[in-house]
From TrEMBL:
<dbReference type="GO" id="GO:0005524">
    <property type="term" value="F:ATP binding"/>
</dbReference>
<dbReference type="InterPro" id="IPR008921">
    <property type="entry name" value="DNA_pol3_clamp-load_cplx_C"/>
</dbReference>
<dbReference type="Pfam" id="PF08542">
    <property type="entry name" value="Rep_fac_C"/>
</dbReference>
<keyword id="KW-0235">DNA replication</keyword>
<dbReference type="GO" id="GO:0003689">
    <property type="term" value="F:DNA clamp loader activity"/>
</dbReference>
<dbReference type="Pfam" id="PF00004">
    <property type="entry name" value="AAA"/>
</dbReference>
<dbReference type="GO" id="GO:0016887">
    <property type="term" value="F:ATP hydrolysis activity"/>
</dbReference>
<dbReference type="InterPro" id="IPR050238">
    <property type="entry name" value="DNA_Rep/Repair_Clamp_Loader"/>
</dbReference>
<keyword id="KW-0547">Nucleotide-binding</keyword>
<dbReference type="GO" id="GO:0006261">
    <property type="term" value="P:DNA-templated DNA replication"/>
</dbReference>
<dbReference type="InterPro" id="IPR003593">
    <property type="entry name" value="AAA+_ATPase"/>
</dbReference>
<dbReference type="GO" id="GO:0006281">
    <property type="term" value="P:DNA repair"/>
</dbReference>
<dbReference type="GO" id="GO:0003677">
    <property type="term" value="F:DNA binding"/>
</dbReference>
<keyword id="KW-0067">ATP-binding</keyword>
<dbReference type="GO" id="GO:0005663">
    <property type="term" value="C:DNA replication factor C complex"/>
</dbReference>
<dbReference type="InterPro" id="IPR013748">
    <property type="entry name" value="Rep_factorC_C"/>
</dbReference>
<dbReference type="GO" id="GO:0005634">
    <property type="term" value="C:nucleus"/>
</dbReference>
Length: 317
């Protein structure tokens, strides 16, 4: 059976993670004293879920995980806390199937659920922490109530380095015999947004192609919107100051079904990786892109703003 790359290359134990020794020492200490109420903080795709699952494996130290001892909750945003209230209560009240070991409740992305739902888990921690470990992950601690944070050991993962991500590429491409040019490697490193998940998905696509992965192929495979369209758009507003034709290009992208936010997100990645614009100008362009993204998030999204966006780009000194 061919496993998806995300499963195939997912670290299972602490010694398979390329993280600071301090993290491993702290987690091993928490396992030793059997106090694993943990809140793990990190960017999307930084390996939080894998580290939480590895913690459970290290704790039980068994060939097969006792599934009756583990309750995964990862779709509260859709189901709501009422859906789980009775299940969580029953789970916490029943004894552990492993002698001398606690049970686990694992809550991925606790920051996406509302305060009322979080309070339910805070109550569970207070009532059942003598028999259940509560481990959770989040991207944004500001959306996690203080009473949960104060009851948890908070571990904040550092942003992943380019060298770390490059090591992942080298490991997988060698094991899977993926032939990829250095320029294509550099490109996917720049557009993966420091996400291990995204990077591994790109490599799996390359494996399926079964050919040498050039820069041109990587641009076509790893981006939603054609970079050729962005190159034409940029050439018109940046080199020729031609607002009219540049607007036609960006509206043609919009008319293919992409939202304004899709366009701005992808254009942000394009600007980061293009070699046709000097770094000082890139900084100014990214500042404008971020301004419009913030505007659309807080007020409204309207395609007419693409005209004003293009005008602001042309006006860059």
């Amino acid at each position: 059976m061919n496993l998806p790359f995300l499963k195939k290359y997912q670290p299972k134990y602490y010694n398979e993670f390329q993280i600071d020794k301090d993290y491993k020492d702290l987690l091993n200490l928490l396992i030793k004293i059997d106090s694993l109420n943990i809140l793990l903080i990190g960017n999307p795709g930084s390996g939080k879920t894998s580290l939480l699952e590895a913690t459970v494996r290290e704790y039980y130290n068994l060939d097969k995980l006792p599934i009756n001892n583990i309750l995964y909750i990862n779709n509260l945003k859709d189901q709501g806390i009422q859906y789980y209230r009775n299940e969580v209560k029953t789970f916490c009240q029943t004894p552990s199937s492993v002698l001398g070991k606690k049970k686990f409740i694992i809550l991925d992305d606790i920051d996406v659920i509302n305060e009322q739902s979080q309070q339910v888990f805070r109550n569970c921690i207070d009532k059942y922490s003598h028999k259940v470990n509560f481990i959770a992950s989040c991207n944004n601690t500001q959306k996690v109530i203080e009473s949960i944070q104060s009851r948890s050991t908070i571990i904040k993962l550092k942003p992943l380095s380019k060298q770390f991500l490059s090591n992942i590429i080298n490991n997988i491409k060698n094991k899977e015999n993926i032939n990829i040019t250095s320029k294509a490697e550099k490109f996917i490193l720049n557009i993966c947004n420091n996400s291990i998940r995204l990077l591994i998905n790109y490599l799996e696509k390359f494996k399926l192609l079964n050919t040498e992965i050039t820069y041109e192929i990587s641009r076509n495979i790893c981006t939603n919107i054609s970079y050729y369209d962005f190159e034409r758009y940029t050439d018109l507003w940046y080199k020729h100051k031609n607002i009219k034709d540049a607007v036609k290009i960006i509206f043609s992208i919009f008319n293919k079904g992409y939202s304004v936010m899709d366009i701005l997100d992808c254009y942000f990645l394009f600007i980061k990786t293009t070699e046709t614009i000097e770094e000082e100008k890139k900084y100014k362009i990214i500042k404008i892109i971020c301004k419009y993204i913030s505007y659309f998030h807080t007020i409204h999204e309207d395609e007419v703003e693409l005209v004003f966006f293009t005008k602001d780009l042309v006006d860059i000194n």
